[in-house]
Amino acid sequence: MGQPDVIIIGAGPAGVRAAEALVGAGLRPTIIDEGRRAGGQIYRRQPENFRRPYGELYGTEAGRAKALHDGFDALAGRVDYRPETLVWNIADRHVWTAAGGRQQALPFDALLLCTGATDRLMPVKGWDLAGTYSLGGAQVALKAQACAIGRRVAFVGTGPLLYLVAAQYVKAGAGVAAVLDTSPFAARVAALPKLLAQPGVLRDGVALTLALKRAGVALHAGVEPLEVLGDADAGVTGLRFRDGRGRERAIGADAVALGYHLRPETQLADLARCAFAFEPKTRQWLPERDGDGRSSVPGVYLAGDGARILGARSAEATGRLAALAVLADLGLPVDAGELADLRRQVAGYARFAEGLAEAFPWPAAQAGKLPDETVLCRCENVTAGDLRRTVREAGAKEANRAKAFSRVGMGRCQGRYCGQAAAEVVAAEAGVPVEQVGRLRGQAPVKPLPIAIEEDAP
Amino acid sequence: MQGRFVRLAETGRAQVTIHVDGAPVTALEGDTLMVAILASGRHLRRSEFGDGPRAGFCLMGACQDCWVWTEAGDRLRACTTQPAEGMRISTSQPGATWASLT
Ligand SMILES: Cc1cc2nc3c(=O)[nH]c(=O)nc-3n(C[C@H](O)[C@H](O)[C@H](O)COP(=O)(O)OP(=O)(O)OC[C@H]3O[C@@H](n4cnc5c(N)ncnc54)[C@H](O)[C@@H]3O)c2cc1C
User: Fold this and answer.
1) In the CATH scheme, what is the code of domain A6-118+263-356?
2) Cβ A417–B57 below 8 Å, yes or no?
3) Which of A115, A168, A262, A356 has most ligand 1 atoms within 8 Å of CB, for mutation?
4) Cα-flanking dihedrals φ and ψ of residue A362, to 5°?
5) How far apart are CA A399 and CA A410, in angstroms?
6) Considering the domain boundaries, does residue B76 fall inside one?
7) Ligand 1 centroid to residue A41 C-alpha, Å
8) Cβ contacts of B61 on chain A, cutoff 8 Å
């Protein structure tokens, strides 16, 4: 038998650890990533001519970041690495790539989807004003470009990244106006038993909150964001919100970093025809997989945050685990002890992630309360009222039907930033559970392609 | 005019000059186009739906809210494109009519 074609999509923690395991077994996988440099989100690398040391860039995770980068660099020559290459479709057991205006179709025997996550967004009135960024985007500005998104940044949303990025801003000397968390503090206390599954990470998280307090940053829990203030000329000038005691307040800010934890990038799993299931705890649809990362489609494997949001450490473990599943399915030997150890680790990460979901819940109820004039879809300027009207007048109670009628999710982001909130708006308006609304189907190309594109012989 | 983004470190890099809508903009080597433009400006483009100026959103190539164009008409994602000396950028699509924007 010739060498099997194994393709990994994503060179973050999951993809890199998967590649290492495959190379260790004598295979030569292809690794495709849209980014310029390997590392993925958490261990995103700065451009080559930047000088900040690891400790400054990655804080408590500096050692892990360096280990991952070194691990990847050590694979040079033993993998077919394709940076700055977008996978835009999966069809007929081929991966379709686009790079620099050229496209190619690569056949695979095994495919590992390690596509990571993006911010999960709940709209707020005024979030279409210039100066509102995704929370992850605020972090990218700092990590990859040594910039702050504004002079006085309000951090709004929920989840561990909210505190992490705010603390990273403070440490880098940026102005932080406030941290406004929609989750009540009591939820964090109630989630403690599960969060103790990773005491070190919990401790680091508490330390971040303390560092923000020491720096004099106002921290509010249990808030309801009401409106990003500003106008078309100035962009963002502030934020109006209801605090945990129900009082309406306003703060000044020239930028807002908005994010409600993460959502997995699942379009490619969808195009590969993987089955999905609704996860009630996070109210998201996730591709189904067995404990080792096998999807419902033979030869297609899932790992890292792209399968389920379990965090960076888990991404390393699930990446390796999925690679071992590939090896086992190809009939190659796999160390049973290592398998058992990885499965045990992942179970711990899953318990911690469940704790995070309870401590920082997705504020589903906000969707129903969005004023009608709130822009829901930033791409096509569709408002919450427009979508509600299609529910009432066209009877569109299913995500893809509502999209066809209202254009929500049809724009250039393809529903990444509005899709989940739109489903909640439809559910609230129609009075049905959100799982009944379903999910937007992934469509090729998963991102807009340059208009002129030439085909290469495979 | 004061820029939207604030440079906090790494300011000793070599300079690159580009032109945005005809005006010179000084970028630093290793910048993204988005950072180069927003370090001195307030926005990147106007929403084609008439709801005002936009300045990008996700910075990771997912939202596509930061499209700009070369003067030759090639579309660029400002958050993932690096400026090169002499680059000439247009914040609106050259020759675009309303109908071709949708
Ligand atoms: C913006 C952001 C910041 C984060 N920061 C932190 C942090 O500071 N600390 C923390 O603990 N966790 C952080 N997280 C969570 C973090 O993403 C994960 O825990 C970890 O990076 C997941 O690793 P991964 O390998 O699953 O995915 P990622 O690291 O996200 O890697 C996925 C890779 O897949 C590539 N990819 C996806 N789709 C395609 C495609 N179609 N074609 C080509 N390539 C593709 C992407 O370019 C990316 O490099 C962050 C998440 C985000 C979104």
Assistant:
1) 3.50.50.60
2) yes
3) A115
4) -60, 125
5) 11
6) yes
7) 4
8) 34, 447
Q: List residues bridging with B18 in a β-sheet.
A: B25
The boundaries of the domain holding residue B21 are: 15-93
Q: By the 8 A CB rule, do A155 and A220 touch?
A: no
- State the CATH class of domain A364-437: mainly alpha
From ligand 1's centre to the CA of A114, what distance in Å?
9
In chain B, which among 83-102 make CB contacts under 8 A with chain A? none
CATH fold of A121-260 reads FAD/NAD(P)-binding domain (3.50.50)
Q: Where do runs of H (alpha helix) occur along A146-198?
A: 160-171, 185-190, 192-195
Evaluate whether A416 touches A430 at the Cβ level (below 8 Å).
no
Q: What is the dihedral of CA A66, A67, A73, A79, to 10 degrees?
A: -140
Q: Tell me the pLDDT tens digit for each residue of A28-47.
A: 999 999 999 999 999 999 99
Kindly report the CATH number assigned to the domain that includes residue B27.
Answer: 3.10.20.440
Digit-coded pLDDT (tens) for A8-22: 999 999 999 999 999
Domains A6-118+263-356 and A364-437 fall in the same CATH topology: no
CB of A40 within 8 Å of any CB in chain B? no
Burial of A148 (0-12, 13-18, 19+ CB in 10 A): buried
With a cut of 70, which residues of chain A have pLDDT below it? Answer: 1, 451-453, 456-458
Q: How far away is chain A from the Cα of B97, in angstroms, using its nearest Cα? A: 17
ipTM over 0.90: yes
CA angle A419/A420/A421 to nearest 5° reads 95
The full set of domain ranges for chain A reads 6-118+263-356, 121-260, 364-437
